[in-house]
Design brief:
By secondary structure, the chain is mainly β. The protein is about 0% helix and about 60% strand. The protein folds into 2 domains: about 1-105, Immunoglobulins (Immunoglobulin-like), CATH 2.60.40.10; about 105-200, Immunoglobulin-like. The strands form 4 sheets. The chain has a 5-stranded mixed sheet with strand order 2-9-8-4-6, with no helix packed on it. Strands 11-18-17-13-15 form a 5-stranded mixed sheet, with no helix packed on it. A 4-stranded antiparallel sheet has the order 1-3-7-5, with no helix packed on it.
């Protein structure tokens, strides 16, 4: 007869790109040794976020076997679940459920708008903005800009480190008198689209 230390594993929220492992102990309470195997229940939308290190095992009487379940979310905002069944040769079976939610990176721009004020023809004014990453993993960013625009960026793409930031210098160099406005979008991997409003005269 088999028993387990837990029939449900809740991994809660985990950043996409990271992984977490939880343990379940399978105990043989019978008087004879037993073999077992573990099977994952198949679903229409096959979720590969969960895996288990061992698919089968052998437990002497009174002994314990360690099963290691890993959760590695693939998509932001998706609530994943998987159901496993442990079956022994004696007909004993135990159901185990796993749950988890994939979350995206915590990234933001240090400002949502930037006003360069009045600029004389032919002069260049620069401003500084930071791409800030509060997450535990590095991620990539890309500003969607026209390289020939009046607003120019020192860098338009790169990697922002975990718990760090990247400085970007933005220049405004008008070639004619007028009021200028542009909304620039910033793509962040596993994050919603960010934007920056640029204003100059």
């Amino acid at each position: 007869m088999l028993s387990v230390s837990d029939k449900s594993l809740d991994f809660e929220e985990l950043l996409v790109g990271k992984s977490e492992v939880k343990e379940i102990l399978v105990h043989n309470t019978g008087q004879v040794s037993t073999y077992f195997k573990i099977e994952k229940e198949k679903t229409e939308d096959e979720d590969t976020s969960f895996s288990v290190a061992s698919k089968k095992g052998f437990i002497p009487p009174g002994e314990t076997f360690s099963l290691m379940f890993k959760y590695q979310p693939k998509l932001v905002g998706v609530c994943s679940n998987a159901h496993y069944t442990i079956r022994s040769k004696g007909g004993n079976y135990i159901s185990i459920s796993c749950f988890g939610v994939g979350i995206g990176y915590d990234v933001h721009l240090s400002a949502k708008s930037m006003n360069f004020g009045e600029t004389s023809f032919g002069n260049k004014i620069t401003r500084l903005i930071n791409v800030v990453n509060n997450s535990d993993l590095a991620t990539s960013f890309q500003f969607l800009v026209d390289r020939n625009n009046l607003f120019s960026f020192s860098i338009v793409e790169g990697i922002v480190p975990a718990r760090g930031s990247v400085r970007v210098i933005i220049s405004f160099n008008p070639q004619d008198a007028g009021n200028y406005y542009e909304r620039v979008f910033c793509l962040i991997r596993n994050h919603k689209l960010l934007y920056l409003d640029l204003i100059g005269t």
